[in-house]
C-alpha cells in the first residue's frame, strides 16, 4: 500500500476525536468569518442569559410587594418585569439574524477550505479510495449550515451558563440542598446524552458505505448515460431493488438507534420530574411551617423550573454541538491532509524547457499493494522532438504509463526523468503546464463549444482566433460552425437559465465522434508545450475523419515531442519509434519497418488488422458491383 493510502486508511473508520479542540477551531473560524458579529452576539447572549434570573426576582418582589401592601415595590417590580418582557420579545429576533449571518459567512469559509484542500491534492489515488471518499462526504456534510449547532451552541451554552449561575445562586439562597440536587441530577443526563450522540454519529459513519451504494444505484436509475441500457436490459426493477435494499439496511440501523434513545430519554425525563416533585414538596412544607414567604415559594418554583430548563437546554446544546463537531472533525481531517504524492512536491522548483527528453528507468507500478503489477521494469526514452507511439493489447498498461507521465501517481519503484530531473522533484503544476494531453476518457463539459475547447487553457477563452485554430487542427471547426450559435452554442441537454430554456436552439447534443474532436482541440490548444500526449485520439471517429485527422496530426507532431497511444496501427506507422507493451513490459521497439522486419507481436497485429480491412473491403466491392 502506498504511504498516502496507508494514511487514509488509518485508524480505520473511527470517529475523529478531540471535540474540544474542534470547538476551539470552529470558534476561531467564526471569529475569522465575522468578528463584529461575534462581539454583538456575545453582548446579546449576556443580556439574554440574565433575563430569567431578573424575571424570578422581579416576580418575587412583585408578589412580596402585593402581599405586604407596598404599592411602590409592586409598581417598580411590574415596570422592571415589563422591560424584561420587551427584551425577551426583541432579542431572539436580533439573535436569529446575527446567527444566520454568521452561519452564512462561516459556510463560505468552510466550503472555501474544503475545495481548496480537495483541488490541492495533486494525485489521483485519494479519489479512488472509498475510505477517503466516505470521509469527504462526511466533511461536505459539515458545510451548508450543518455547523449551526456549534456556532449557535457556543452562544446558547454561554447564555444557559449565565442563566444557570443566576438561578442556582437564587436557589442556593432559598435552599442550598435543592440547588445541589438539581445540579447533581443534571450530570447523568449530560453523560447519557453525550454517549447517545457519539453512538449516533458512529452508526451514521458506519452506514456511509451503505449510503454510498444507495447513491450509486439511484444515480444509475436517473443517469441519462445509463438510461439506454437500463431500459434495453430491463434493469429498472433490479436497480430499484438494490436502492431499497440499501435503504432498508440504513433505516434498520437508525431505527435501533431511535428506539434506544427514546428509552433513555424517557428515563431521564423521569429523573427530572422526580427532582422537581421533591423540590415542590419541600417548598410546600416550608411555606406551611412559615419558613418561606409566598414570594419565596413563587421564586423557588420558578427557579427550579428555570434551572431545569436551562440545564436541559445546556445538555441539548452541548449534545447537538457535539454531533456537529464530529462532522467538523471530518472536515478538519480532510482539510489538513498532506498531499497524496509523497514526498510532497516542492512548489518552488522550476522545470526548464525540454532539451533532451523523458526517460523511464526501471519503472514498476501497481495501483495498490493488493493489486497486481501494471508496469514491470519499463525502460523507455522519449527523445526530444521525436514522435513515439505506444501500442499493446487491452490492459497492457498504456494509459497507466500516461498517468505516471502526468504524475497523477509516482512509480512504485524506479523513476521518471525529465531532462535528467526526477519527476518527484518537480512541482506537478509546473510539469502539467508543459503538456497537452488528450485522455482516453476525456470530459464533455456542459458548457459552450468555445468554452469546451478553452478548458485546455482557460486564459485563451477570450482569444477566439486561437480556439478556432485548435478546432481546425482537430477537425472540429466545420462542426462547430454549423451549430445554431457557432462557438457560443451550449453543448448540453441541461439548460442553465430560464431564457435559454425558452430558446429551442439553446442546448445542442453532439455525437460521440464530434465530442472526440472537441476534446482533441482542447489538447491541441495547448500549443507549443514540451510534450503532447494523445491517448486514442481517433477512437470514436469515422474512417474518413480518422484518416484526415491522423494526416494532420502526423504533420503537427513532426519535430514535436509526442506520445501517441492507438489501437489503429495504421495511424502509428509514421511514428519515429513504436513501442509495444505487453502485460506491463516493453517487448519490442523500433520504427514500423524495423518491427515489420522482426516479425514479432507488432507485425502480427498489423497484418491481422490489414487483413481484416482487405477482407471487409472485398465483399463491399462485390456488393458495389
Ligand atoms: N485506477 C485504477 N485502479 C486499479 N487498477 C487500475 C486502475 N486503472 C487501471 N487499472 C488496471 O491497470 C491495468 C492496465 O490498465 P490501463 O488502462 O493502463 O491499460 P491500457 O493498456 O490503457 O488498456 P486499454 O487498451 O484497454 O485502454 C488493467 O489491468 C486495469 O485493470
Automatic annotation (TrEMBL):
<feature type="domain" description="ABC transporter">
    <location>
        <begin position="358"/>
        <end position="608"/>
    </location>
</feature>
<keyword id="KW-1133">Transmembrane helix</keyword>
<dbReference type="InterPro" id="IPR017871">
    <property type="entry name" value="ABC_transporter-like_CS"/>
</dbReference>
<keyword id="KW-0067">ATP-binding</keyword>
<keyword id="KW-0547">Nucleotide-binding</keyword>
<dbReference type="InterPro" id="IPR003439">
    <property type="entry name" value="ABC_transporter-like_ATP-bd"/>
</dbReference>
<dbReference type="InterPro" id="IPR003593">
    <property type="entry name" value="AAA+_ATPase"/>
</dbReference>
<feature type="transmembrane region" description="Helical">
    <location>
        <begin position="262"/>
        <end position="285"/>
    </location>
</feature>
<keyword id="KW-0472">Membrane</keyword>
<dbReference type="InterPro" id="IPR011527">
    <property type="entry name" value="ABC1_TM_dom"/>
</dbReference>
<feature type="transmembrane region" description="Helical">
    <location>
        <begin position="161"/>
        <end position="191"/>
    </location>
</feature>
<keyword id="KW-0812">Transmembrane</keyword>
<dbReference type="InterPro" id="IPR036640">
    <property type="entry name" value="ABC1_TM_sf"/>
</dbReference>
<dbReference type="InterPro" id="IPR027417">
    <property type="entry name" value="P-loop_NTPase"/>
</dbReference>
<dbReference type="Pfam" id="PF00664">
    <property type="entry name" value="ABC_membrane"/>
</dbReference>
<feature type="domain" description="ABC transmembrane type-1">
    <location>
        <begin position="42"/>
        <end position="323"/>
    </location>
</feature>
<dbReference type="Pfam" id="PF00005">
    <property type="entry name" value="ABC_tran"/>
</dbReference>
<dbReference type="GO" id="GO:0005524">
    <property type="term" value="F:ATP binding"/>
</dbReference>
<dbReference type="InterPro" id="IPR039421">
    <property type="entry name" value="Type_1_exporter"/>
</dbReference>
<protein>
    <submittedName>
        <fullName>ABC transporter ATP-binding protein</fullName>
    </submittedName>
</protein>
Amino acid at each position: 500500500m502506498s504511504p498516502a493510502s496507508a494514511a487514509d486508511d488509518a485508524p480505520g473508520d473511527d470517529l475523529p476525536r478531540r471535540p474540544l479542540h474542534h470547538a476551539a477551531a470552529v470558534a476561531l473560524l467564526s471569529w475569522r468569518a465575522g468578528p463584529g458579529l461575534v462581539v454583538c452576539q456575545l453582548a446579546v447572549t449576556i443580556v439574554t442569559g440574565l433575563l430569567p434570573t431578573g424575571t424570578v426576582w422581579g416576580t418575587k418582589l412583585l408578589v412580596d410587594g402585593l402581599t405586604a401592601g407596598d404599592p411602590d415595590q409592586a409598581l417598580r417590580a411590574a415596570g422592571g418585569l415589563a422591560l424584561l418582557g420587551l427584551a425577551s420579545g426583541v432579542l431572539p429576533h436580533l439573535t436569529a439574524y446575527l446567527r444566520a449571518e454568521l452561519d452564512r459567512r462561516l459556510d463560505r469559509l468552510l466550503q472555501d477550505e474544503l475545495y481548496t484542500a480537495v483541488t490541492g491534492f495533486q494525485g489521483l489515488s485519494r479519489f479512488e479510495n472509498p475510505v477517503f471518499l466516505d470521509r469527504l462526504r462526511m466533511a461536505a456534510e459539515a458545510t451548508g449550515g450543518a455547523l449551526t449547532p456549534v456556532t449557535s451552541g457556543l452562544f446558547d451554552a454561554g447564555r444557559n451558563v449565565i442563566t444557570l449561575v443566576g438561578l442556582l445562586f437564587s436557589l442556593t439562597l432559598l435552599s442550598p440542598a435543592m440547588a445541589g440536587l438539581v445540579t447533581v441530577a443534571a450530570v447523568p443526563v449530560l453523560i447519557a446524552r453525550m454517549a447517545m450522540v457519539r453512538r449516533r454519529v458512529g452508526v451514521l459513519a458506519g452506514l456511509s458505505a451503505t449510503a454510498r451504494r444507495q447513491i450509486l444505484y439511484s444515480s444509475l436509475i436517473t443517469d441519462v448515460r445509463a438510461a439506454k441500457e437500463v431500459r434495453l436490459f430491463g434493469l429498472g426493477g433490479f436497480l430499484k431493488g438494490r436502492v431499497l435494499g440499501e435503504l432498508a439496511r440504513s433505516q434498520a440501523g437508525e431505527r435501533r438507534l431511535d428506539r434506544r434513545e427514546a428509552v433513555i430519554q424517557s428515563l431521564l425525563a423521569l429523573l427530572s420530574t422526580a427532582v422537581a416533585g421533591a423540590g415542590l414538596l419541600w417548598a410546600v412544607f416550608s411555606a406551611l411551617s412559615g419558613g418561606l414567604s409566598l414570594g419565596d415559594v413563587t421564586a423557588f418554583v420558578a427557579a427550579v423550573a428555570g434551572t431545569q430548563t436551562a440545564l436541559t437546554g445546556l445538555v441539548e446544546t452541548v449534545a447537538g454541538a457535539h454531533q456537529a463537531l464530529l462532522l467538523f472533525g471530518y472536515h478538519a481531517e480532510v482539510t489538513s491532509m498532506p498531499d497524496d504524492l509523497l514526498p510532497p512536491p516542492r512548489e518552488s522548483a522550476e522545470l526548464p524547457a525540454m532539451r533532451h527528453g523523458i526517460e523511464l528507468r526501471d519503472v514498476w507500478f501497481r495501483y495498490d499493494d493488493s493489486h497486481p503489477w501494471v508496469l514491470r521494469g519499463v525502460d523507455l526514452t522519449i527523445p526530444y522532438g521525436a514522435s513515439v507511439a505506444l501500442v499493446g493489447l487491452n490492459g497492457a498498461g498504456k494509459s497507466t504509463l500516461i498517468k505516471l507521465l502526468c504524475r497523477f501517481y509516482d512509480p512504485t519503484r524506479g523513476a521518471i526523468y525529465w531532462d535528467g530531473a526526477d519527476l518527484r522533484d518537480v512541482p506537478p503544476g509546473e510539469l502539467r503546464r508543459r503538456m497537452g494531453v488528450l485522455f482516453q476518457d476525456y470530459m464533455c463539459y456542459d458548457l459552450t463549444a468555445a468554452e469546451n475547447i478553452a478548458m485546455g487553457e482557460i486564459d485563451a477563452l477570450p482569444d477566439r482566433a486561437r480556439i478556432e485554430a485548435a478546432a481546425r487542427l482537430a477537425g472540429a471547426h466545420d462542426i462547430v460552425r454549423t451549430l445554431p450559435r457557432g462557438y457560443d452554442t451550449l453543448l448540453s441537454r441541461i439548460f442553465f437559465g430560464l431564457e435559454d430554456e425558452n430558446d429551442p436552439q439553446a442546448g445542442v447534443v453532439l455525437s460521440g465522434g464530434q465530442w472526440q474532436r472537441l476534446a482533441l482541440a482542447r489538447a491541441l490548444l495547448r500549443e507549443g508545450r514540451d510534450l503532447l500526449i494523445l491517448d486514442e485520439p481517433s477512437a470514436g471517429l469515422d474512417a474518413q475523419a480518422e484518416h484526415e485527422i491522423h494526416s494532420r496530426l502526423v504533420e503537427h507532431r513532426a519535430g514535436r515531442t509526442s506520445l501517441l497511444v492507438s489501437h489503429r496501427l495504421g495511424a502509428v506507422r509514421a511514428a519515429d519509434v513504436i513501442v509495444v507493451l505487453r502485460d506491463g513490459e516493453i517487448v519490442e521497439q523500433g520504427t514500423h519497418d524495423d518491427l515489420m522486419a522482426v516479425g514479432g507481436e507488432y507485425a502480427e497485429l498489423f497484418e491481422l488488422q490489414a487483413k481484416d480491412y482487405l477482407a471487409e473491403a472485398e465483399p463491399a466491392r462485390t456488393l458495389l458491383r
